[in-house]
Amino acid sequence: MNKYILVTKEMTWQDAQEYCRQTYVDLATVDNMDDLNQLVDLADGVGIWIGLHDFNRKSMDSYPNSWRWSTQTRSQTGYMNFASGQPNYNGARQECVRMTSHGTWADAACSDQDKFVCFSGPSSAKTYHHVSQTVSWESAKSYCRTHYTDLAKIENQAENQQVSSLVTTSSWIGLSRVPWTWSDGSNGSFRHWEAGEPDNKEKRQFCTLIVGGAIADTYCQSQKQFICMAMFKVSGNDVKMKSKKVSEEHMLFLFLSSDGCFSGQHRKQGLQPELERSADKTRAGRLEP
Ligand SMILES: [Ca+2]
Ligand SMILES: [Ca+2]
């Protein structure tokens, strides 16, 4: 189980990330239902930021959630030709790319049925092949891998023109991405979305919070309480935070149970238990500012 700290001061997602990185480790990563349930308890019904975000919707760099060609090798050039306003991750369900009849690109739902373009030959001298069957992006990829090399990979304007000359109605090309990534760089695939979420409302919900018992995407500029990942050093009976930079408004309590697991609990002001010790090494402490 991951170890968490609730910070009750409200901040934007990015300020919260900065705060967690400076004070603890990072914004919270959630790896399983046990983690999630801890956070739901900590949140006590209030929406709280966690580390899951999707900032890299328009990039083709090394972020886990940026665009990739379906081929084994990455783009040599990083060339992209998205239409104005694209990619927009409309409805939080557009993870594949089609070429429009204008030769520009747009992200679209991978389950949509489209014609598609494959390529064959070496990367430096690709030959493109248009297939007028209409299928999902995955089916198009399988077809291309069976009959040619892969779905069309486009690395410069000349290649884009070659493909464009074959495309009269929208057709899949080989670009896709896996959305959402954790702030701490871990690649955990746990997601437990609230019903109807994520929805990328207004096409600008890049950050996530826990609300109720599940995860939802929302505007990063909202002011929310948040959850940091805590790092603890345990030697003998000593329990140390990575940092003690915790102010009074961020009161929190750490409990070390007899099985060695920590949990953090937020307590409302006025309830300030003293440091406790017991023979079985159970210890609870309030972090002083
Ligand atoms: Ca789109
Ligand atoms: Ca949403």
Number of domains: 2
Mean pLDDT equals 83
Q: Which ligands appear in the coordinates?
A: calcium ion
- Helix amount, in percent? 10-25%
Number of strands: 20
The CATH architecture of the largest domain can be named as Roll
- Decide which structural class fits the backbone: alpha+beta
Looking at the structure, the CATH topology of the largest domain is Mannose-Binding Protein A, Chain A
Terminal CA distance reads 27 Å
- Cα-atom radius of gyration: 24 Å
* CATH H-level superfamily title of the largest domain: Mannose-Binding Protein A, subunit A
The percentage of residues in β strands lies in: 25-35%
Described by the principal axes of the CA atoms, the overall outline is elongated
Largest sheet: 7 strands, mixed
Write the layout of secondary structure elements.
Layout: E1 4-11, H1 13-23, E2 26-27, H2 33-43, E3 48-53, E4 68-69, E5 96-99, E6 105-108, E7 114-120, E8 127-135, H3 137-147, E9 150-151, H4 157-166, E10 171-176, E11 181-182, E12 207-211, E13 214-218, E14 224-229, E15 232-235, E16 238-241, E17 253-256, E18 262-265, E19 276-277, E20 283-286
Parallel strand pairs: 3-14, 7-10
Antiparallel strand pairs: 1-14, 2-14, 3-11, 3-12, 4-10, 5-6, 5-10, 7-8, 7-9, 12-13, 15-16, 17-18, 17-20, 19-20
Protein model, in words:
By secondary structure, this protein is α+β, with helices and mostly antiparallel strands. It has 2 domains: 4-54 and 181-286, Mannose-Binding Protein A, subunit A (Mannose-Binding Protein A, Chain A), CATH 3.10.100.10; 68-176, no CATH class. The protein has 4 helices and 20 strands. Strands 1, 2, 3, 11, 12, 13 and 14 form a 7-stranded mixed beta sheet that branches. Strands 4, 5, 6, 7, 8, 9 and 10 form a 7-stranded mixed beta sheet that branches. Strands 18-17-20-19 form a 4-stranded antiparallel beta sheet. It starts with a strand and ends with a strand. Residues 232-289 have low confidence and may be disordered. It binds calcium ion (2 copies). One calcium ion (CA) is lined by residues 86-88, 90, 94, 106-108. It comes from Muraenolepis orangiensis (Patagonian moray cod).
